[in-house]
Amino acid sequence: MKRWLVGFAAMAILFGGVGQASASFILYFDENGNASYTQTLLSGAVVSGTIVGVVAQDPSAPAGMMGLTYALPELVNNGDLLIMEPGNPTAPVVSDMLRFTNNLGDLTLGHQTANLLIYYSDIEQGEANTDLADLPFTTNTTSSIPEVGGEGNNGFDWQPGGVPYPNGNEYVGISDAPEPATLTMLGIGIVGMAGYGWRRRKTAAA
Fold it and tell me: Shortest CA distance to 74 belongs to which of 173, 167, 146?
């Protein structure tokens, strides 16, 4: 098959997928690169999947500024969101930041071209080991939400809503103590591999 025909088919699949943009999605993620999502398509169908976050160059920042990056299931509004430590409301402390941008580094508010979520976090008090998101960051806006829960066991739940998401997207993040989730996912993988090996041995014995 000619290369141009393969390319044309790939573009058709790509734009066909864009035409199935969702009305909303819920993204669950932590500081160690673990994420899953549930997406409701315009057709009403519900799909889900997992996303692996990687530490990569922040395209909106100077060279060498790295961030824990997740590829989003659809395009969302650009900009930064600050996550604030709970406590003193007159002197809030920034603990984390969510950056919504694209491969060109666009942070323009009002644009809807962001296909990347870059998650930055500070090192929590009493934290023995740093997580992938524990990286230096600078902010671009003052939009913010508070963390929920005490130090050592906290997170956040952000639902921006509004146009162009009348049904609202939702971002549920763990900003502290993500290791148990990581170990659980690892445990599920090990059990699955063991079951697969047992089934192969049983089939071979038969």
Answer: 167
Q: Which two tokens stand for residue 92?
A: 């809030």
pLDDT per residue as tens, the chain (206 positions): 444 333 433 333 333 333 345 568 999 999 999 999 999 888 889 999 999 999 999 999 999 999 999 999 999 999 999 998 877 667 778 889 999 999 999 999 889 999 999 999 987 666 666 889 999 888 887 688 888 876 667 889 998 865 554 557 899 999 875 454 444 443 333 333 334 343 334 444 55
Instruction: Please give the model's pTM, rounded to 2 decimal places.
Output: 0.72
10: burial class by Cβ within 10 Å (0-12, 13-18, 19+)?
Answer: exposed
Any idea of the CA torsion for 73, 69, 57, 93, to the nearest 10 degrees? 130
Name every residue whose Cβ is closer than 8 Å to that of residue 196 and which is 6 or more positions away in sequence.
Answer: none
For 129-133, the CB contacts below 8 A with 24+ separation are 131/30, 131/31, 131/32, 131/178, 132/31, 132/32, 132/33, 132/53, 132/55, 132/68, 133/31, 133/32, 133/67, 133/68, 133/96
The answer to whether 80 touches 141, Cβ cutoff 8 Å, is yes
